């Protein structure tokens, strides 16, 4: 078996030079790379499992990024796949980085376990497409609006410290929009989002003005589905679709429920939701008309 060349390692500059450490994307990329190297070596998951003395299902979970990568296991697998000493050492160094905690773990006291992965994926995405039915998306919320949403969440206590920490986390997540390589944010909102008063008038005024301002950024596009659009175009629930620059990561659809969330990464699943988002986008007004609608709605509160 011929030795592997270091160039087979994925290009990770975008993640390693990120303003904030993001182990989630790195972990998923390395897991996917292990699968590609196994396939390139013409080996089955069973053969890989024999080397690690584990089941075929564990190898599948490892290659999907569902279990932590261990340096010893990676070393054994790379030796089986014909990797060079240099490539193995580089891979092991990346594994160590992928096992570190992301910046968001400083908010573990208020961070739901199922939301952890989403923050890391969102930071790594090159394109974020999101559809909201009733609320302004978290990445575009003002501190006051975010506080009102957090305070009304029945899952939280009325402890002001807890609410404040949730707002801090939300604002920290928004920093990705200011990165040198900021993602493209594409937002589709039902018109109800503009008229649902979740906070006092002053807060709503500030939020809608902020939404209008953010919608004019070059990397952000906001489009509104008016009340007059056909009912059939609404999905009835929020959808977030994440796309990434490196081919090592598949597209991911995030669906949040009351106490957990679902992550979809199979091609047939993501294609289905991409089609739904395309339909919603077609039903929405153009960015210019949507901006005017947001500004007009703000006048109701200001």
Instruction: Give the radius of gyration.
Output: 22 Å
Return the structural class: alpha/beta
Question: Largest beta sheet, briefly?
Answer: 6 strands, mixed
Helix and strand sequence? HHHHHHHEHHEHHEEEEHH
CATH architecture of the largest domain: 2-Layer Sandwich
Strand content: 5-15%
Give the CA-CA distance, first to last residue: 71 Å
Estimate percent helicity. 40-55%
From the spread of the alpha carbons, the general shape counts as elongated
Named CATH topology of the largest domain: Endonuclease, Chain A
Query: What is the count of DSSP helices, taking H or I runs of 4+ residues?
Result: 13
How many structural domains can be distinguished in the coordinates? 2
Oligomer status:
single chain
Name the average pLDDT: 87
Within CATH, the superfamily of the largest domain carries the name Endonuclease Chain A
Strand order of the largest sheet: 3-2-1-4-5-6
CATH class term of the largest domain:
Alpha Beta
Low-confidence stretches: 1-7
Number of strands: 6
Task: Describe it.
- β4 and β5 form a beta hairpin.
- By secondary structure, this protein is an alpha/beta fold.
- α3 crosses α4 (56-63) and α8 (143-152) crosses α9.
- The chain has two domains: 10-98, lambda repressor-like DNA-binding domains (434 Repressor (Amino-terminal Domain), Orthogonal Bundle); 105-141 and 172-301, 2-Layer Sandwich (Endonuclease, Chain A).
- The longest helix is centred in the first third of the chain and has 18 residues, at 23-40.
- A six-stranded mixed beta sheet has the order 3-2-1-4-5-6, sandwiched between helices.
- The radius of gyration is 22 Å and the shape is elongated.
- It contains 13 helices and six strands.
- It has helices at residues 13-16, 23-40, 45-52, 56-63, 71-80, 85-98, 113-124, 143-152, 160-173, 192-195, 201-214, 267-283, 287-301, and strands at 127-132, 184-190, 220-225, 239-243, 252-256, 261-264.
């Amino acid at each position: 078996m011929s030795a592997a060349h270091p160039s087979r390692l994925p290009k990770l500059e975008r993640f390693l030079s990120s303003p904030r450490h993001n182990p989630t994307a790195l972990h998923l990329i390395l897991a996917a790379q292990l699968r590609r190297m196994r396939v390139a070596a013409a080996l089955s998951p069973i053969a890989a499992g024999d080397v690690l003395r584990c089941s075929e299902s564990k190898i599948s979970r490892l290659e999907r990024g569902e279990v932590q990568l261990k340096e010893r296991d990676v070393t054994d697998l790379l030796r089986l796949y014909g990797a060079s000493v240099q490539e193995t050492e580089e891979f092991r160094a990346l594994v160590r980085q992928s096992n570190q905690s992301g910046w968001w773990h400083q908010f573990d006291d208020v961070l739901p376990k199922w939301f952890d992965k989403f923050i890391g994926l969102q930071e790594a995405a090159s394109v974020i497409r999101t559809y909201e039915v009733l609320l302004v998306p978290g990445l575009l919320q003002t501190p006051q609006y975010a506080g009102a949403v957090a305070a009304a969440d029945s899952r939280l206590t009325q402890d002001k410290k807890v609410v404040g920490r949730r707002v801090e986390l939300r604002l920290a997540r928004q920093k990705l929009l200011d990165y040198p390589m900021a993602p493209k944010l594409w937002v589709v909102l039902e018109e109800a989002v503009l008229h649902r008063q979740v906070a006092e008038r002053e807060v709503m005024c500030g939020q809608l003005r902020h939404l209008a301002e953010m919608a004019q950024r070059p990397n952000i596009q906001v489009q509104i589905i008016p009340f007059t659009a056909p009912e059939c175009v609404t999905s009835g629930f929020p959808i977030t679709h994440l796309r990434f620059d490196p081919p090592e990561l598949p597209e991911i659809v995030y669906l949040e429920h009351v106490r957990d969330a679902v992550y979809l990464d199979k091609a047939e699943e993501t294609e289905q939701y991409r089609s739904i988002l395309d339909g919603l986008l077609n039903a929405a007004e153009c960015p210019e008309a949507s901006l005017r609608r947001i500004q007009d709605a703000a006048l109701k509160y200001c």
